[in-house]
Amino acid sequence: MAQKPSIPKGTRDFNPEQVAKRRYIFNTIQKQFERFGFQPIETPSFENSDTLMGKYGDEGDRLIFKILNSGDYLSKFTQFFNQRTIRFFEAYAFRLHNENIDVLEFLKNERASSTFYQRFFESELVGSDFKGIEIFDEKYESAIMHTIDENKDEVAILFNDIDDDFKNFDESRKLVASKLASQVFSTWLFNYDSKVSSIISEKALRYDLTVPFARYVVQHQNEIELPFKRYQIQPVWRADRPQKGRFREFYQCDADVVGSKSLWQEVEFVQLYDAVFSALGLKGTTIKINNRKILTGIAEVIGAKDKLIDFTVALDKLDKIGEEKVKDEMRSKGIPEDGISKLQPLFGISGSFKDQVAQLKPILASSEEGLKGIEELEFISEAISTLGLTSSTLQLDVTLARGLNYYTGAIFEVAAPESVSMGSIGGGGRYDDLTGIFGLKHVSGVGISFGLDRIYLVLEELNLFPETIAKSTDVLFINFGDKEALSCLKAIKILREIGVNAELYPDASKMKKQMNYANKRNIPFVVLVGEEEMITNTFTFKEMSSGIQDSVNIDQLIGKIINPS
Amino acid sequence: MAQKPSIPKGTRDFNPEQVAKRRYIFNTIQKQFERFGFQPIETPSFENSDTLMGKYGDEGDRLIFKILNSGDYLSKFTQFFNQRTIRFFEAYAFRLHNENIDVLEFLKNERASSTFYQRFFESELVGSDFKGIEIFDEKYESAIMHTIDENKDEVAILFNDIDDDFKNFDESRKLVASKLASQVFSTWLFNYDSKVSSIISEKALRYDLTVPFARYVVQHQNEIELPFKRYQIQPVWRADRPQKGRFREFYQCDADVVGSKSLWQEVEFVQLYDAVFSALGLKGTTIKINNRKILTGIAEVIGAKDKLIDFTVALDKLDKIGEEKVKDEMRSKGIPEDGISKLQPLFGISGSFKDQVAQLKPILASSEEGLKGIEELEFISEAISTLGLTSSTLQLDVTLARGLNYYTGAIFEVAAPESVSMGSIGGGGRYDDLTGIFGLKHVSGVGISFGLDRIYLVLEELNLFPETIAKSTDVLFINFGDKEALSCLKAIKILREIGVNAELYPDASKMKKQMNYANKRNIPFVVLVGEEEMITNTFTFKEMSSGIQDSVNIDQLIGKIINPS
């Protein structure tokens, strides 16, 4: 039986038109990246797991696609299984037997016993370190015995009668112990999944472009010149639950500079966003900017310095839930009432960038860091006013709090034009120590990224893709037979040499079928070379949109295709 | 401790220059693909395992990178482990105990016993079907007992003394049985690796572009128009042992047509190879062509129709080992002596395409299929002579036998110019039923591919990359301070708008450092704007290669950058 073909959920096939449209966006962005002096790098699709794991938080770790070791990964697992776990079982079963502990009742309720053993494995006696499980180590054996003894009452409640299955068995304790050991193992396997993963998988698919970039900078530090302005347009993979607009494979487009703290970089990134959206013909985007130092300053001023995340998470909801509910949330997080009243002026902030800054200053008067943040924003804003933007607006947004885990200075987010209901189509910020995780300290970086899939949807909705994108082949030559086809290929060769995309229909099929192919493929011109044309050395040229036909020589044919009326 | 960063073996980082050079090759190929009417598609990096497994032979299956199921893959494994295997252990251990079989000696030599159990698991009693292992199924329990009983003598030889480790144990048979069961499990786990893989992995990285293309055609058959001319340039992954020039991640560039048996496709693919190599400035490539039908015909004529692969493998070595050894190999494969003497004329074949065909014809006179192959080659060769090639030569090579598992008609292979010692830089052929595996029968296809990495090395060796590739930024503006920087950015903005790649050095560092950056980055021009220039509204323009400096206004600056002397 043939398989019914499909692709994994969250992934996509792209047809020729979609590829062309995506490429149009990539090429436009790439051209602007290069205008601004960024250079492309590419990194492998998979990295060593060590490079990626632990860089995106627990949730991120879970969403990283892991690649099974190739070849003999299972023999490695088997070896591991033999050497450690089996021996652990043995020692465990042996001890249970020798000490004559009645554990038969344990087995009644598998789920409950799992919970019981889970608790055991979470105890500090075993700990999260794998090495803890070593055979013949009396400490762990006694730990197991002890845990069981300590919980006898609980055990009695969990298993208050005998499993029917086991009545058929010789009820020897050792067999039971073996069963128990197996259960312990499966619980252990489940709880130690990251450890098991690391035994059978040592590589993982790229989760974003930032961590591989940091790895690249450190690994190649002797080859690159700082400041290093790089851009990277490559796919990333996330094991997220797929939903509308969220995919398991998607492209990221990032530009970053490392090795300079200059605020001119921030200025240039605002210009770069504007240049890309202008080149795409997308008017009315808003480049929102904030600074982590301002958020820290506000938290400081209201006495919630240790509650920066709680505070900003609440503030971030101002648009959605309004002032009162934001205050309620802050109260519930333990931010003091007098702090919240100090916030009052913040809720009324409005007007131009300058106006907003003027209103912010008094609030932050007592925070050195907050004032530093304002100074940075003013620098960027003033430079941008002088230089001017073409299609975008720069807007201060003190509620903007994305990436607070890593951003240390500027924070960017780009909103699509208001006429389109689409979230952010880009974002970025400054991070002070990205490469530190790989051992290269004190290298400041700043970068932005473009949300390709959303930009695609925005351009589609606003009908901003150039019309020429849908057309790939300029002209189709109809095939009337081998002699005619050879004549056609002679002309096609000339056309291709001067840059025309031309093709011959491969078979001498019915005229209707061939014309239909030209229509479906959106090919604007068709050329017919029959017996008569071969004799007179001419071509019958047909414009598909109008249906008008002409008899032309080769030079006229070229003219009609290159400069269509 | 910070990690020392590295990348997985067989993968590569690409620096800006390498990315630019690779892109140059991609873009050149892509442009020619489109000239010939091919349209791009893209498929996901990973496919469902079912789509890929079993399509590349056993060796291929082993080289496919499998992706671990995300999230709870281990709970699935645990569940499986609980439900089947543990129960199997129990029944097994229980029976061993009850029947009082002395199996302690089994455990002496783990490797030997693994072999023993492997043999057991390979027996038809268990078979390769996973469902065979079901607990409480008397058939399997007695099978185990029976196997042990039958092999008692062998067991005695394998284990002629007692393992020291086990002297410390209560030597109860049940414990031993438990150990034994565990060993059986690990052996089983090892032998059933593909089954375990399918439990913990359901997706795999693309191994080539051909199978995903076939899947695409079948899945989207209602959206595409046949004949479908597609090209695809995407990475593929193979868990091959990395070595010089062989990577675990590399790009493939394929163009294929499905849905037409027309030989004009083969003609066009020869032209396409020629067009790409001409566009890359690569002269002297040889496009070798053969036809499977000719190979089949020869095999038929010499009475070795059932030994086609043996015969072609031997013939393929003619260049390397010479006529006599080829004959020896054929003899050793059982090809009859009178068949080999019929081959004699084949070894003397030489001359032009036409000459070779003339020499082949009498050899194949009695084979209908062989003559059909000749006819096809003649058609292609004649068309190509009429149309002409620019940089390549078309050559008949009757020893060419790549892809015999799938090619059914034409077989292509491209050799790099003789001056470069590099193997094949491209290959392809016609396959009659590619999409059949996914349920769409009778769709003929033909395609070629380009070996990007080798083409890169050839262009590098022959110094054929355009010089302009190394340059990314046209002009660097030196930074003397914030006021000057803002002035620079005004000029930079103008330059970028007219297509110049321009950048400002982000910090007001020492002049020497900034000039050094321009040098290292290979930036041809530098502009200096100091206090004086700001007052006079001029720019000091420096050409890095000559060191010549000029004072210019903005229009002159543009002129100097756009039309350098």
UniProtKB/TrEMBL annotation, chains A, B:
A Pfam family of this chain: tRNA-synt_His
One GO MF term: histidine-tRNA ligase activity
Major location (coarse): cytoplasm
PROSITE patterns linked: AA_TRNA_LIGASE_II (PS50862)
Residues in Aminoacyl-transfer RNA synthetases class-II family profile domain copies: 225-506
Superkingdom: Bacteria
EC number, UniProt record: 6.1.1.21
HAMAP family per the UniProt record, alphabetical: His_tRNA_synth
Family to which the UniProt record says this protein belongs: Belongs to the class-II aminoacyl-tRNA synthetase family.
Subunit field text: Homodimer.
Protein name, per record: Histidine--tRNA ligase
Organism of origin: Microcosmobacter mediterraneus
Organism classification: Bacteria, Pseudomonadati, Bacteroidota, Flavobacteriia, Flavobacteriales
